[in-house]
Write a structure and sequence with these properties.
- The chain has 16 helices and 15 strands.
- The chain is of the alpha/beta class.
- It has an eight-stranded mixed β-sheet with strand order 10-11-9-12-13-8-14-15, sandwiched between helices. Strands 3-4-2-5-6-1-7 form a seven-stranded parallel β-sheet, with helices on both faces.
- The longest helix is centred in the N-terminal third of the chain and has 15 residues, at about 50-65.
- The structure holds adenosine monophosphate (AMP).
Length: about 425
């Protein structure tokens, strides 16, 4: 199957070719024909599946082939949970519309509204936005939704997690009832199904296998540790393993700042990315990380959601997420596009319950090890996953451990290794 077979016009095919894509990804193959046919679509797809082009290409085709008044009313709206995702989707929209007469724009909070208002005034066919800022702009009458033909909710599950449901419903209440609706979500909770029921009409369901299927591409490992040792362990892992690009997940903004400071003090270049950082700081941190100018990006779940960081070799869960699905999203940052990756979780006694929840979701146990010299002394969980046996520290990219006593004893259980069946609950709660 080629992009041409999907029914895309020459102008879009040229843009796609310039991006270097040769064949459509599964979600593109499944979603594009339905979207071109004007159907509502409910798509199960995570970042990394090519979902953005999956909705952007057909919507751009629709917009370019449909007549519109000269003043260019807003006809398509993409709602995203975070500023970063909005910026990324907008970049895609711009690239794919290079050869079309389409006006696009992006609006999100954290930056001044004046230039966004000026852009909207000039007429925009397709707008990418985060819900809060968009409602502000609507309240100021800087944007109207009366002529919306297509509504796209990207990463709808995360928008619900972030409490945007009221904003979304409010925005929709200003739109015409007759329109096309596309809802993309990585997971399908009860809430998402409810939202889908209220928004979508006779939707076609499409599902994508992420390229970075957690079970197959990513080597996952947990270290049972003391909470107080985590910083020292992660510093050693990065230094000893010569890791040059590692994404570390924290549960809190404060924790992200603190760890970043400690890494910098150890001579490891790092930056934090979270909701309290200015837009400028977040963009700069991400771009420095992508260009390898900094080795470590320390992120909270919300800030990291939807970031397109290709071929990331290492992800560390400094703290396990309390929502098991977030674990799947986190480790989805590694081993992308067919490359293998390593995801390491540092688990202290108070997080063992989170680990169990994650294992339930994955349908398999995480290989759990203890690092020599860092044996956990806090209350061990009642259930030990494994018996311990001697083994040597091996990190996929490390040479030799720097510290002699930095050698984990392999405490891997017999059922913790090997390929697991992909668990459909990854995507369906
Ligand atoms: P997304 O899931 O939309 O965030 O896309 C993930 C990555 O895949 C982005 O870097 C896209 O540029 C890239 N991508 C999208 N579609 C294709 C394709 N058909 N072939 C190769 N790469 C693609």
């Amino acid at each position: 199957m080629s992009f041409k077979d999907l029914g895309l016009t020459d102008a879009l095919l040229k843009a796609v070719q310039e991006k270097g894509y040769t064949t459509p990804s599964p979600i593109q193959e499944k979603a594009i024909p339905h979207i071109l046919a004007g159907k509502d679509v409910l798509a199960s797809a995570q970042t990394g599946t090519g979902k953005t082009a999956g909705f952007t290409l057909p919507v751009l085709q629709y917009l370019s082939e449909t007549k519109h008044p000269k003043y260019r009313p807003l006809r398509a709206l993409v709602l995203t949970p975070t500023r970063e995702l909005a910026a990324q989707v907008y970049d895609n929209v711009r690239e794919y519309s290079s050869y079309l007469n389409i006006h696009s724009a992006v609006v999100f909070g954290g930056v001044k509204a004046a230039s966004q208002i000026a852009t909207l005034k000039r007429g925009v066919d397709i707008l990418v936005a985060t819900p809060g800022r968009l409602l502000d702009l609507h309240n100021q009458k800087a944007v109207s939704f009366k002529r919306i033909d297509v509504l796209i909710l990207d990463e709808a599950d995360r928008m619900l997690d972030m409490g945007f449901v009221r904003d979304i419903n409010k925005i929709i209440s200003f739109m015409p009832a007759k329109r096309q609706n596309l809802l993309f979500s990585a997971t399908f909770s009860k809430e998402i199904k409810q939202l889908a029921q209220t928004i979508l009409r006779n939707p076609v369901m499409v599902e994508a296998e992420p390229e970075n299927s957690t079970a197959e591409m990513v080597s996952q490992k947990a270290y049972r540790v003391n909470k107080k040792d985590k910083t020292s362990i992660v510093t050693n892992l990065i230094k000893d393993g010569n890791w040059n690009q590692v994404l570390i997940f924290m549960r809190t903004k404060h924790g992200a700042n603190k760890l970043t400071k400690q890494l910098l003090q150890s001579g490891i270049s790092a930056a934090a990315i979270h909701g309290n950082k200015s837009q400028g700081a977040r963009t700069k941190a991400l771009s420095n990380f992508k260009t390898n100018d900094i080795r470590v990006l320390v992120a909270t779940d919300i800030a990291a959601r939807g970031l397109d960081i290709p071929l990331l070799p290492h992800v560390v869960n400094f703290e396990l997420p309390n929502i098991p699905e977030d674990y799947v999203h986190r480790i989805g940052r590694t081993g992308r596009a067919g490359a293998s990756g390593e995801a390491i979780s540092l688990v202290c006694s108070e997080e063992t319950e989170y680990q169990r929840e994650i294992e339930k979701l994955l349908g398999k146990k995480l290989a759990t090890e203890i690092i020599e010299g860092y044996e956990p002394t806090d209350n061990a969980p009642p259930k030990r996953a494994a018996t311990q046996s001697k083994g040597s520290f091996k990190s996929s990219s490390s040479k030799k451990p720097h510290r002699k006593n930095h050698t984990p004893r392999d405490a891997r259980s017999s059922n913790s290794e090997g390929r697991s069946k992909r668990n459909s609950r990854n995507r369906r709660r």
